Amino acid sequence: MLSITRRSALGLMGATAGSLIMPRMAFSQGKRPSVTIAVQKITNNNTLDIWNEQSNVGERVFFPNFWEGLILRDWMGSQGPVPGLATEWKRIDDKTLELKLRQGVKFHNGDELTSDDVVFSFSAQRLFGDTQPAGGKTIFADEHKPTTAKELPASVPGIGRRLWPALAGVEAVDKYTVRFHNATPDVTLEGRLYAFGSQIANRRAWDEAATYADWARKPVTTGPYMVGEYKPDVSLTLVAFDEYWGGRPPLEEIRFVEVPEVSSRVNGLLSGEYDFACDLPPDQIGAVRAASGFEVQGSTILNHRISVFNVQNPVLADPLVRRAMTHSIDRQAIVDALWAGQTVIPDGLQFSSYGDMFIKDWKAPEYNPQLAQDLLKQAGYKGDPIPFRLLNNYYTNQTANGQVMVEMWKQVGLNVQIEMKENWGQIHDPSGVKGVRDWSASANINDPVTPMVAQFGPNSEVQQKKDWTNAEANELSVVLETSTDPALRKKAFARMLEICEREDPVYQVLHQNAVFTGMKSSLKWKAAPAFAMDFRASNWTM
Amino acid sequence: MIRFVLTRLLRAVMTIFAVVTFAFVVLRMSGDPAQVMLGPDVPQDAVDAFRKAWGLDQPLWVQYLAYIKSIFSGDFGVSMRDKVSALQLVLERIPATLQLTLPALLLKLLIGIPAGVYAALHRQSFADRGVILLAIFGFTIPSFVMGLLLVLIFSVILGVLPSGGQDTWMHSILPTITMSIGGIGILARFSRSAMIEVMGQPYIRTASAKGLKWSDVVWGHALPNAAVPIVTIVGFMVGSLIAGAVVVESIFSWPGIGRLLVVSVTNRDLAVVQCILLMIAATMVISNLVVDLLYGWLDPRLRAQTAH
Asked: Is B201 helix (H, G, I), strand (E, B) or coil?
């Protein structure tokens, strides 16, 4: 016969309660949730190398979960700098920046981060190839050609020099101290350190990889998540790195799956297969919001949609015609009709994240059809056709936006003709007559050197392809890049805006770009004002 | 017969050669691969370096001769995106595509032909009209509409099947059905027409009049004679086993040859596109060759014509 005493009964009840509670406690400390994110594209170049995959889609899978720099971007806040793999930094002089590395940071392979990894990350072997800083020999002399599998892709050094045109080298002062030496004075060195590309890679992992392709499919970094499995064009699984210096990551796995069709992404979200559906066009927002248990998060990002003029075109050689084109566009009507009012018209080619460098009284060209007609009359415009090379929705709403602009131009008497193109090669094809084309401009660092100097300065693609040039703007670009006087730099930037948007327009701003993500409402997560998706502990509540 | 086979083999080789040349020229005339691959924001130095590294700065005829020389030695080139052999990339994707196209082909054959034959044998009946209606429905609805409709019903509303991906065998159900519906409709329609035509022939009346069982008349005399147009259609379907999944693979995020082709064309990954087109052309040509040979086997009159 079973005898139960008060003591044994209490013990049994305690054991029962324990057996019920303990596994849950263990669960909460061990097993974490995983998320599946449907994206239009994981990467464009099928690599996870920050210098090879300089794209919006790359930003999403890289930051801030995988790649980390000495200085990090404040993705969920001001977009400004915050300490990262470096805890502090100071200027030695106009050309030199010294940084103290965070101690105890581990790479995914267990190595400790040291100055050696930083030097390697900005070395000729990893980034610059045989290029030299500004003032040295021409970037990429004709003899450059990959000879071994480990050699960098031919495009990487050129891209590296775009962000670091005058970086002479990185010096390892001691195990935890590095100095960046620039060939010219540069007030934006700190900004360049948290821009896309300046993140730190593990040296040993590079040395151990048989080929560049092998390394680029699974780079070893310090981020909170590491590469679990990467199937190019199919999926990328990032898994938690529990030795992360910033604390245990809140998710077990982040799985990005490539779903090229927007309707398939939305359907997969609504059927519960995906937790997030990215790259939603504005016309899909209503459908997701209308479904119970789902929401859409999104905001403007540090990227403006613009259109660019080619002054080789005899009609567009006259700045009055270009000015007329900028005053013919009702930007607010486009934002209301195509973006459901979900984005804004910027104050010219600048961003509020510039801080003190922001020109407060500058605006986008006003919509004034009468002024546009007067300008065309002054220019003696006779209705000659202006070609508009247009891609089919490379940018969100691009085709519809192009069609609307052509009709607006037509209203003031401009004869702009759309030529649909399939790719950027056709857009830039030097044969035939160019006219207008679409583009976008990003603020990679919180300073007017991006995008103004990077995209329209003397070494920009626009000038290399002979779309446009302006001697005064080029001189001002040098001031912006090398001067350390804030007042002089701000004055130079203001004057560049006048030249590039009014006097001798090279582009016109249209609207700020925005990104929208559908998600399950039950997830306690916030979207950043960027393509980047933050899955660190600070942005995920259980 | 040998002359018949050799003539068709020669034609097949010439067709493949024409496809390869056409693809080579068109791909290079329709946009600079360096600019496409690197995107709109890279400096001109990077674009120039890329062109040089991949030999795109050479005259077109030099590139073409080098390409022809390499494919004759079994080298199909290297992917500009993945830096691995184009042939390896293509071969890796073929099983995924066949995972959809083979069951889809089987469904087409097992449902389409019997449905068409049944409708022909029960002409003007309710079943006949039903088959015609479903067949028209099947081949007139584009696969991207059908795919999305099936996803809406079975994934979003009922929640019983996954909407995309390749994780489990369940993921292949909707894309396989989507791929097969159009083909079922086409085969049903052709089988019905062919059977109706044959059933009106004097030799069918003769066979019936001499007391053969109805099933023997249908299986022994009608169906073999109706098979020639059906085999032609099936030949096209077999030929497109590799190429036929472009739209469906995109809708269902299925990592097969179709997706690879779309991505490679978009990125102007020349070696991969050329390798896929070469493979598709070869499959189609071989399929047509087999169909030609089957004609001779199915219809002795064709053999006799060739012999003379």
From this structure: coil
- If one counts every other C-beta atom within 10 angstroms of the C-beta of residue A240, the result is 21
* The one-letter amino acid at A193: L
The C-alpha atoms of residue A180 and residue A171 are separated, in whole angstroms, by 6
Select from B54, B80, B156 the residue whose CB has the most chain A CBs within 10 Å, as the one to mutate to test that interface.
Answer: B156
pLDDT interval class at B228 (50, 70, 90):
confident
A511: CB partners within 8 A, 6+ apart: A304, A305, A331, A334, A335, A339, A343, A344, A345, A346
Average pLDDT over residues A525-530: 93
Output b/e per residue, B36-55; b: 16+ Cβ within 10 A.
bbbbbbbbbbbbbbbbbbbe
Three-class DSSP category at A350:
coil
Residues, chain A, total? 542
Beta bridge partners of residue A174, listed in sequence order: A177
Which residues, other chains included, contact A214 with Cβ-Cβ below 8 Å and sequence gap of 6+? none
For residue A487, the tally of other CB atoms under 10 A from its CB is: 9
Is there a contact between A424 and B81 if contact means CB atoms under 8 Å apart? Answer: no
A389 chain-B contacts, CB cut-off 8 A: none
Computed on alpha carbons and rounded to an integer, the radius of gyration of chain A in Å comes to: 26
Q: What distance in Å separates residue B213's CA from the closest CA in chain A?
A: 53
Q: What are phi and psi of A174, to 5 degrees?
A: -150, -170
Residues of A in contact with B40 (CB under 8 A): 424, 427, 439, 461
Helix or strand run (H / E) with residue A261: none
- Extract the tokens encoding B301: 């009159």
Distance CA A94, CA A181 (A): 10
Q: In this complex, which of A159, A426, A459 lies closest to B46 when CB atoms are compared?
A: A159
Q: How far is CA A368 from CA A409, A437, B17, in A?
A: 11, 22, 58
CB distance A264–B251 less than 8 Å?
Answer: yes
Instruction: Output the pLDDT for position A25.
Output: 42
Residue B267's contacts (CB-CB under 8 Å, 6 or more residues apart) are: A44, B33, B36, B37, B80, B81
Partner residue opposite B49 with nearest CB, options A144, A425, A439: A144
Tokens linked to B159: 């929640």
**Pair type for strands A507-520 and A276-277:** antiparallel
Confidence of residue A135 (pLDDT cuts 50, 70, 90): very low
Question: Among A237, A268, A269, A242, which residue's Cα sits nearest to residue A253?
Answer: A237
- Convert B189-227 to b/e letters by CB count within 10 Å (16 or more is b): bbbbbbbbebbeeeebeebeeeeeeeeebbeebbbebbb
Axis-axis angle for helices B270-298, B86-107 (nearest 10): 40
pLDDT for the residue numbered A99: 98
B268 touches chain A (CB under 8 A): yes
Separation CA B131–CA B137 (nearest Å):
10
A245-273 residues labelled b (16+ CB within 10 A) or e (exposed): bbeebbbebbbbbbbbbbbbbbbbbbbeb
Please say whether the beta carbons of A294 and A288 come within 8 A: yes
How far out from the chain centre does Cα A539 lie?
20
Rounded Cα distance, A397 and A392, in Å: 9
Q: Terminus-to-terminus CA distance in chain A, angstroms?
A: 48
This prediction has a pTM of 0.85
pLDDT tops 90 at residue A512: yes
Nearest CA in chain B to A234: B255
Worst-scoring range by mean pLDDT, A13-17, B225-229, B231-235? Answer: A13-17
Report CA Rg, chain B: 24
Asked whether the CA dihedral A511, A341, A280, A541 is positive or negative, the reply is positive
Measure in Å the smallest separation between the Cα of A240 and chain B Cα atoms. Answer: 21
Helix (H) / strand (E) element for A189: namely helix A189-193
Q: How far is CA A362 from CA A449, A474, A501, in A?
A: 17, 21, 10
